[in-house]
């Protein structure tokens, strides 16, 4: 099934109420927003609707409230304030309940150019449960449904699926952010230019097992770094010292190695590591694939970094999900930096370069290179699910292009 969906640009929104599912799950500290990236990411969709005479009704979750009513520490009120500053216009935040009378009155009173932000959807247990009665109440707010929350597109929450279904033949489209995610992540699998290289890292191979299976025979080269490489190396009979190994996955890793060997995909694993006795950034040493008993591998080594960088720099399509080491603690950020630099070089040479969400997005942003790749995904779990070819319930209910 093609991932292409109709977008907000395909719909006449003039004098219509557009119910937009956004991802405003921002980090809060004492009621203050630490990072407004996700709010900024929704601005193109919101402005598109406002500029064409529509009314915007926004809904989102934030954090993990119990689902038994308002919890002030998870309120979206600070988000409403920040959004108003970014849009330079008032944002109505009517109530501490997305479905009470005040919320309904605010939506009904909205005029063209108005913005209403509903309170945290997860204050209702029905959001996580996909409850249809809860969804029907939200669906009444919109003439058009627009999903711009890619980070939750692999979930079956009420606002992601049942609200759209409750709206019947009213349009259900992708927002600008979601459309961009689909264009890059969908295209990476459906229409990738060769050589196609996937770079996987992070701590646990179990988190990316489905991704590896999906990419085997699809990508030309699969690069595996980060701590997940140690489980594969253990399966190959190497000593891994005190490095992180998923013991329960070693037998599965053996099978995976056989399957990769039989496929058309070339597997690149680290040949050396930066090792230390602890994670505090103390004395380090370089070792090959066999690591002394008292040490742990905390980053790919210089020879590995050079080899990985060469493979990335010569590719035409690169998807990267997962850092190469403990990038938060120098000097164990060097391998991740080298891959990021290779991604930037490949982009400059005309390649399509896609960075998965989560830690990888944080790493490349921290390195100041986010604007030097084609696309940085806003959804870690969702981007992996899409690469795996797994179910994306929120996409399936949108109108196909």
Describe the SSE topology:
Blueprint: E1 17-21, E2 28-29, E3 32-33, H1 37-41, H2 43-51, E4 55-59, H3 77-87, H4 101-109, E5 115-117, H5 125-129, H6 132-139, E6 144-147, H7 162-166, E7 172-174, H8 176-190, E8 196-200, H9 209-215, E9 221-224, H10 228-235, H11 250-262, E10 266-268, E11 273-276, E12 284-287, E13 296-300, H12 302-313, E14 317-321, H13 334-348, E15 352-355, H14 359-366, E16 375-376, H15 380-388, H16 393-396
Parallel strand pairs: 1-4, 1-6, 4-5, 6-7, 8-9, 8-14, 9-10, 14-15, 15-16
Antiparallel strand pairs: 2-3, 11-12, 11-13
Helix pairs in contact: 9-15, 10-11, 12-13
Describe this structure in words.
By secondary structure, this protein is of the alpha/beta class. It is 36% helix and 15% strand. The chain folds into two domains: 8-177, Rossmann fold, CATH 3.40.50.1260; 184-388, Rossmann fold. It has 16 helices and 16 strands. A six-stranded parallel β-sheet has the order 10-9-8-14-15-16, with helices on both faces. Strands 5-4-1-6-7 form a five-stranded parallel β-sheet. α9 (209-215) packs across α15 (380-388). The N and C termini lie close together (12 Å).
Features:
401 residues; alpha/beta; Rossmann fold; 6-stranded parallel β-sheet; 5-stranded parallel β-sheet; 16 helices; 16 strands
Distance separating the two termini: 12 Å
Query: Based on the structure given, which CATH architecture of the largest domain is correct?
Result: 3-Layer(aba) Sandwich
| CATH fold-level topology of the largest domain | Rossmann fold
Uncertain residue ranges: none
The CATH homologous superfamily of the largest domain is called Phosphoglycerate kinase, N-terminal domain
Radius of gyration: 23 Å
Q: Give me the secondary-structure category.
A: alpha/beta
With helices defined by DSSP (H or I, 4 residues minimum), what is the helix count? 16
User: What percentage of residues falls in helices of 4 or more residues?
Assistant: 25-40%
Oligomerization: single chain
Give the overall pLDDT as a whole number.
93
Give the amount of beta strand, in percent.
5-15%
Tell me the strand order in the biggest sheet.
Answer: 10-9-8-14-15-16
Globally, the shape reads: elongated
């Amino acid at each position: 099934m093609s991932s292409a969906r109709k977008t907000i640009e395909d719909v006449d929104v003039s004098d219509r109420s557009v119910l937009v599912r956004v991802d405003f799950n921002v980090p809060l500290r004492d009621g203050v927003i630490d990072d407004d990236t996700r709010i900024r990411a929704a601005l193109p969709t919101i402005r598109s609707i406002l500029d064409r005479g529509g009314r915007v009704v926004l809904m989102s979750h934030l954090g993990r409230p119990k689902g038994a009513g308002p919890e002030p520490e998870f309120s979206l009120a600070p988000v409403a304030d920040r959004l108003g500053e970014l849009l330079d216009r008032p944002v109505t935040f009517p109530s501490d309940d997305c479905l009470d009378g005040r919320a309904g009155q605010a939506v009904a009173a909205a005029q063209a150019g108005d913005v209403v932000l509903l309170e945290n959807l997860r204050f209702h247990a029905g959001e996580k449960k996909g409850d249809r009665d809860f969804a029907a109440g939200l669906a009444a707010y919109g003439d058009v449904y627009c999903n711009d929350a890619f980070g939750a597109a692999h979930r079956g929450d009420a606002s992601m699926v049942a609200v759209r279904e409750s709206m019947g033949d009213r349009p259900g489209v992708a927002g600008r952010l979601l459309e961009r995610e689909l264009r890059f992540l969908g295209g990476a699998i459906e229409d990738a230019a060769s050589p196609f290289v996937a770079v996987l890292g992070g701590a646990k191979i179990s988190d990316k097992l489905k991704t590896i299976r999906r990419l085997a025979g699809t990508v030309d080269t699969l690069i595996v770094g980060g701590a997940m490489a140690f489980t594969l190396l253990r399966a190959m009979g190497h000593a891994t010292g005190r490095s992180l190994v998923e013991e329960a996955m070693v037998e599965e890793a053996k099978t995976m190695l056989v399957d990769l060997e039989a496929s058309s995909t070339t597997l690149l694993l680290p040949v050396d590591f930066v090792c230390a006795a602890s994670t505090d950034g103390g004395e380090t040493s370089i070792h090959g694939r066999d690591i002394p008993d008292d040490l742990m591998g905390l980053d790919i080594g210089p020879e590995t970094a050079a080899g990985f960088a060469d493979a990335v720099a010569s590719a035409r399509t690169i998807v990267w999900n997962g850092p190469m080491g403990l990038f938060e603690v120098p000097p164990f950020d060097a391998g991740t930096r080298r891959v990021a630099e290779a991604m930037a070089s490949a982009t400059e040479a005309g390649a399509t370069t896609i960075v998965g969400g989560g830690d990888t997005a944080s790493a490349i942003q921290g390195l100041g290179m986010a604007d030097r790749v084609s696309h940085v995904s806003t959804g870690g779990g969702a981007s992996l699910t899409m690469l795996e070819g797994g179910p994306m319930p929120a996409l399936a209910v949108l109108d196909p292009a």
